[in-house]
Design brief:
- Helices cover 67% and strands 4% of the residues.
- The chain is mainly alpha-helical and 990 residues long.
Length: 990
């Protein structure tokens, strides 16, 4: 059977390789690696090709890539300066490998999730995340205080967060002076926006989340292929943003392991940064390129038919043996008989003169003006007679093809631009103006599809590309006149992310060099340098606000964007100052008011938030974000009907606003409209099936509705979407615990704290799981870990206090309850619990004081009345009459609760348990047995049964006269449990 025919691309590569002259030794060095075992200790897996501009680095790298692709089962990726951060580099690698049939699917999904969550964090009004802590017995959800870890991070390295490429405005604006106080605030701020702890980590530290998935997928490709080769060209430009990432994936373990059969090739003009690569430079294979030797230059000229002595000597002199210029001159039509002419003219002028077709000469010059050229741009700028010459242009020696487009080599393009600018300044301006108008038409076409929303436009890569090129050409045509608009657009770019900020800065600097404008060059240099600083976003915006060229609208925008940066960085006071300044500059614009409203919401000033957002929607009734922000403020005020109306308006404006559907679901939940809430979570997931927060929130709702199997399925689905979703893992663990599946619960809690070692709630909940299986010492240790992370974690203090009671360590219990009351003195549950512990210690008067205060705070709680009555009885002194009145009120409360619950569910079980304990306190053994029968008819978990035995043991301990009734009740409960009764259930703790 005949073999497969080669593709056109393969034939083109062979043809290019056949014409490659020189660098034979360098080519051989690389080819030899394919004959070697990559597992050899001295295998050269990391190359660095280095040399000055024009020495042929890119040409050599392309030849290396062609040589690699000639091998069996080898795939390659080529990345140049089109990427501006590590995330963009990983995306480019994924795209290139995908075109070769090896997509990085998990990475692509995670990248899409990152961008979606990033957009939600920047543009969506924040809403509450599912609670990261469980409520205590009184129903209060603990609010963590600043953790010691945050202070340590501030002191020892939080600054590095801002240097992570791709981290964008969320972390770049952190003030080192405020980090110790603000790190938890920042995390909490993003939690309200992003719903889950793991989304916060993804947005704050995208590289840490994306790089491991990238390496895992790359490992799968490497498993299927003999070799994977990653080329990074023009590294002098991309090195500053890729160095740390590449060094880590090559030599570190932070992101995982690099497959042994992956090779990396870097190519650039500069030496590798000693500060980053220093310890590993010995493992980098350096390939240093110099200008051609005279023999190599003559060989190349001969290959193109240039052999006569004078012509060869002239080429050698004009080119300085720089490979790019040697090749360019060698490809000229010197053999046509015109010769090389006057040697005083530059090499570029010689090239244009040698081209016999004047239309092509004009085309070559015209195509040097754009930053890049594709077939459409070529057709728009060249003379009509040369309209079919795009293939000719792509074949020129100094033109490099790039994914359907092409670009000139910097050495040649710079010379051509200088020639055109100095030869005819007016023609230069007209040409750049025509190009600006060309890109403007493309931008307007994109806007027709995207609509008027500025955020949607800037979020679209095609629109951004048109806007960038339009701005570049307007700056080249009129550097001073176009600068104000360019700076205003730079504000948007800075607000988007660090990569866009950097690219915009580079474009301003490039325009300055090309137009010979010192002012533009300085702007580009300053903006690019601040992109590498910790406070990238706020630093750049501060520079822009100091620019006299920035008009009032631009200044208002800059204040609004900087206000957002401060807001998400946990500095709402600075945000308030900026948003107020923005409103003063643009009182008739919606965005400043929306930002002001959001800042008021963060500060807890909800009424003012409503007022500011109201003004925003008055100015722009189509602002879905402002409606969503006001809805969230209404929800936090408890004005649920108004919140529902605004959320509904937001999704009416934007039917794909998944966040608003999810947030409206929470408002429905607050009103007890669970079915409506469930429908909205379904709608959010219909828009975004991988919206893990909505999946987790729906799971929590289903759990509350008693639909445990469906809730379990949703928690599992959320974890499948994001295996690092610690909140969902912990919530599933809690559900396993409630279902009596203790081992699975312990496994999930352990996984949650492995994902997030600072997850205090998960440690506290694992402590409860250890309690459930009688592993008390491990439970005490986990409560300690939770409190080590968050000393103000009241729920963990109360939980450990209960455990100490169960263990007979009543003094320790009293101490923990006291600490909890120091955090929240108004917790009736904690007061009653400390009262119980004090009774166990015989400290009756203190117990009475606590129980009296608990009843005062919550007089309708039957358990509070019952505990108070027991304290009165245990203390003696003729207080029986007062105790009887308390018992009567407790009994009425319990019976009313049982009736309200319809005799089923957890509320009914709690009421029957209260009546059981009350009967024992009244020394009514027959009544206690009746209540045992009622409890036996309900489905209760082991934890609930254990709590009943604990309550009975407590009564017997502080009121010995109740012992016989307690014993009858315990005996009946054990009989009801049958062969499945727990070994730790007897009332031995007396």
């Amino acid at each position: 059977m005949a073999g497969r025919r080669p593709s056109r691309q393969e034939v083109n590569r062979r043809r290019g390789g056949a014409g490659f002259v020189g660098r034979r030794g360098e080519l051989a060095v690389f080819r030899e690696t394919f004959a070697r075992d990559p597992e050899d200790a001295d295998f050269p897996f990391l190359f660095h090709v280095r040399g000055n501009g024009g020495v042929g680095k890119s040409t050599l790298v392309r030849q290396w890539e062609a040589a690699a692709r000639e091998q069996a089962s080898v795939v390659t990726s080529y990345v140049d300066d089109e990427v501006h951060d590590a995330i963009g580099a990983m995306e480019a690698v994924s795209a290139r490998l995908g075109r070769q049939g090896h997509p990085l699917k998990r990475f692509d999904r995670q990248l899409a999730t990152y961008r979606q969550r990033r957009y939600q964090a920047e543009s969506a009004a924040p809403g509450p995340q599912p609670p990261s802590g469980a409520p205590d017995a009184a129903g209060a959800v603990p609010v963590p205080s600043a953790s010691p870890s945050s202070t340590v991070a501030a002191q020892l390295g939080l600054a590095t967060i801002g240097l992570v490429p791709g981290a964008g405005p969320f972390v770049g604006a952190v003030d080192p002076q405020q980090v110790a106080l603000g790190a938890d605030r920042l995390r909490a701020m993003l939690n309200t926006r992003l719903r889950s702890h793991d989304d916060v980590q993804l947005v704050m530290h995208p590289l840490a989340a994306l790089a491991p998935v990238f390496l895992d997928d790359l490992a799968d490709v490497a498993e299927r292929c003999e070799r994977v080769v990653l080329f990074f060209d023009v590294y002098e430009r991309t090195g500053p943003v890729l160095d740390a990432w590449l060094r880590t994936i090559a030599f570190g373990e932070e992101y995982g392991s690099l497959p042994v059969n992956v090779q990396i090739v870097l190519s650039g003009q500069l030496r590798l940064d000693q500060r980053i690569w220093g310890d590993w430079l010995g493992q980098v294979t350096e390939v240093c390129l110099e200008v051609f030797s005279e023999d190599e230059a003559r060989t190349l000229l001969a290959a193109h038919g240039v052999t006569d002595g004078p012509s060869v000597e002239l080429v050698l002199r004009l080119s300085g043996r720089l490979p790019l210029l040697v090749d360019m001159l060698a490809r000229s039509d010197a053999r046509a008989g015109d010769g090389f002419g006057d040697p005083s003219e530059t090499a570029v002028e010689r090239f244009l003169k040698w081209e016999p077709d004047p239309e092509r000469r004009e085309a070559a010059l015209a195509c040097a003006l754009p930053l890049q050229v594709d077939e459409d741009i070529y057709a728009a700028v060249v003379p009509e007679a040369a309209a079919d010459g795009y293939p000719w242009l792509r074949a020129l020696a100094f033109v490099s093809p790039q994914a359907g487009r092409c670009r000139y080599h910097d050495v040649v393009r710079t010379a051509m631009l200088r020639l055109q600018r100095t030869r005819s300044p007016e023609r230069w301006r007209r040409a750049h103006t025509r190009l600006a108008e060309l890109f403007e038409r493309g931008r307007l076409g994109a806007e027709a599809e995207l609509g008027p929303d500025a955020d949607a436009r800037w979020g679209d890569a095609v629109w951004r590309e048109h806007r960038l090129n339009e701005t570049y050409h307007r700056l080249c045509a009129h550097p001073r006149g176009a600068l104000p608009d360019a700076l205003r657009q730079t504000v948007h770019a800075v607000g988007l992310d660090v990569a866009t900020h950097r690219r915009w800065a580079q474009t301003l600097g490039r325009a300055g060099l090309d137009a010979d404008s010192a002012a533009l060059t300085a702007w580009g240099r300053r903006l690019e340098s601040v992109a590498d600083e910790e406070e990238a976003g706020t630093g750049a915006l501060t520079l822009l606000l100091a620019a006299p060229e920035l008009d009032a609208a631009g200044r208002a925008l800059a204040y609004s964007v900087r206000g957002r940066e401060y807001r998400v960085a946990g500095d709402p006071q600075s945000a308030l100052a900026d948003c107020t300044a923005a409103v003063a500059l643009a009182p008739d614009t919606s965005r400043p008011y929306a930002g002001l409203g959001e800042t008021y919401r963060v500060l807890g000033r909800y009424e003012e938030a409503v007022a500011a957002c109201t003004r925003a929607v008055e100015l722009d009734p189509g602002d879905a974000w402002a409606f969503g922000s006001r809805a969230e403020a209404y929800r936090l005020l408890g004005r649920y009907d108004e919140a529902l109306a605004d959320f509904s308006r937001a999704v009416e404006i934007d039917p794909l606003y998944a966040w608003a559907f999810g947030s409206r679901a929470q408002a429905y939940e607050a009103l007890g409209r669970r079915d409506d809430a469930l429908a909205d979570y379904d709608r959010a997931l219909g828009i975004d099936p991988d919206y893990e927060w909505a999946v987790g929130s729906r799971a929590q709702l289903l759990e509350g509705m008693g639909r445990r199997e469906e809730a379990l399925a949703d928690y599992t689905r959320a974890i499948t979407i994001d295996p690092q979703y610690a909140w969902a893992v912990g919530s599933r663990a809690r559900l396993f615990e409630r279902m009596g599946r203790h081992e699975e619960a312990l496994a999930d809690f352990s996984r949650a704290v492995e994902i997030d070692p600072l997850y205090a709630w998960a440690f506290g909940s694992r402590a409860q799981a250890y309690e459930a299986v009688g592993r008390y010492e491990e439970a005490v240790a986990d409560y300690g870990r939770a409190l080590g992370i968050d000393p103000g974690f009241r729920w963990a203090l109360a939980g450990r206090g209960e455990l100490f009671e169960r263990m007979g360590r009543h003094e320790d219990a009293v101490a923990d309850y006291g600490r909890a009351l120091g955090i929240d003195p108004s917790s009736d549950w904690t007061l009653a619990a400390r009262g119980r512990a004090l009774l166990s210690l015989g400290r009756h008067e203190e117990a009475l004081a606590d129980c009296a205060r608990a009843v005062e705070l919550e007089p309708d709680n039957g358990w509070n009345e019952l505990t108070y009555a027991l304290a009165l009885l245990a203390g003696g002194g003729g207080r029986h009459e007062g105790a009887a009145a308390r018992l009567g009120r407790a009994e009425r409360g319990f019976r009313a609760a049982a009736e309200l619950a319809g005799g089923v569910g957890e509320d009914a079980a709690d009421a029957y348990e209260g009546l059981l304990v009350l009967c024992c306190v009244q020394l009514d053994g027959d009544g206690a047995v009746v209540q045992c029968e009622a409890l036996a008819g309900l489905e209760r978990g082991e934890a609930a049964v254990r709590e009943t035995f604990d309550a009975l043991a407590f009564v017997a301990r502080v009121l010995p006269a109740a012992g016989p009734a307690v014993e009858r009740a315990e005996r009946r409960l054990r009989e009801a449990q049958g062969p499945h009764r727990r070994a730790d259930a007897p009332a031995g703790d007396r």
